[in-house]
Structures are given as C-alpha cells and as structure tokens.
Model the fold of this input.
Amino acid sequence: MPSVTATGNEVVYQIDHDNRLIGFNSEWDAFAVTNDSPHLVHGNIIGQLLWDFIQDPETHHLHQTLLQRVRQQQRPIILPFRCDSATLRRFMQMEILPLPKGTVEYRCLTQRTETREAVSLLEPNAKRSDQGQLLRMCSWCKKIAVNDDWMEVEDAIRQLQLFASATLPGISHTMCDACLHKLSMEPD
Ligand SMILES: [Zn+2]
Done:
C-alpha cells in the first residue's frame, strides 16, 4: 500500500510582462531542495526567462498559449499536473493568475502524494547511455511513450525491460497526445 499524504504547501512564483521570473514565496526554495534541484533556488534564477526552464517545443508552445489566454481574458486558469520525483508521485494543481501590468502568478499546490520504490530512471544523477534512442516523457503528466502508448513510468520500465539494462536511456520531454488535446481544448 503506498502511503498517501495531503500537503498544503503552495509553491508560488511570478513572471513579469516579459516572462521573466520576478518573485517567489519561501516554499519555492524548499521545493527545489527537496526535489534534488538546489541549483534552482530563487537567488540563482531570479530575472531569468521562464523559457530557460521549459526546453521542449510542445510544452513551450502550450505555456505560451495559456499565458496569452490568462493575460487577454484577465481570468485565472486551473490545471492538474504531475511533478514526480524518483520516490514520489506528486499530484498537483497549477493556478495561473493574471495580475496588473502583465504580471502573472503561478500557484502550484500539491494535492496528494504517493510514495513508491525509487525509480532510478527518474533520478537526476543516474548514469545514462549516450547512445540509442531517448525515451519520450510527457512533461505534463509524466507518462512515458512505449511505441504508440503512453504509460506510467513503472509500467514503461517493465514493458521496456529497463531493469535488465546496465545503463539507463536518456529522457526527452514532450507532451503526450491526451495532455496536448486536453490543455489546448481548455474552455475559454
Ligand atoms: Zn501527458
């Protein structure tokens, strides 16, 4: 039985009208450190473009579309997403709020988490093969593409027999068909 914890800590950050990171709450740094990303504490990244942290073109495009909608309509959008670590499935909710002068606030709330056995594929420092195909992972729901199916990472590892391989494949981020469809169809 995975243990399920409700956590109420909301990670909040803001971007200005040029999409530069301008503000963070204290939970931001705590989250970065817990998530094996101490280099992302606010002092290191303030003033940088949001796009410096969103590399794949599909996710970039989706965020641009959402931001445009929030700024034009001056209404918040609320979306569920996943932000997993090697040992934790995090079910989160993102609220994108318009503020004056083109500033936008992101509020990311962990709604629940499920612990799991460490998935080495998701450990940031795991040794990766620099040959062979990259695995495609949806940056929104964290599913992995296996042929034409998108599945939870544990199922993908079983299916692809990654437990048996000495080095792990690299991961490239993209959006799965379901997320792309759902998020671009978000009602106005
Ligand atoms: Zn997805």
Notes: Residues 1-7 have pLDDT under 50 and may be disordered. The domain at 8-184 is CATH 3.30.450.20 (Beta-Lactamase). The chain has one domain: 8-184.
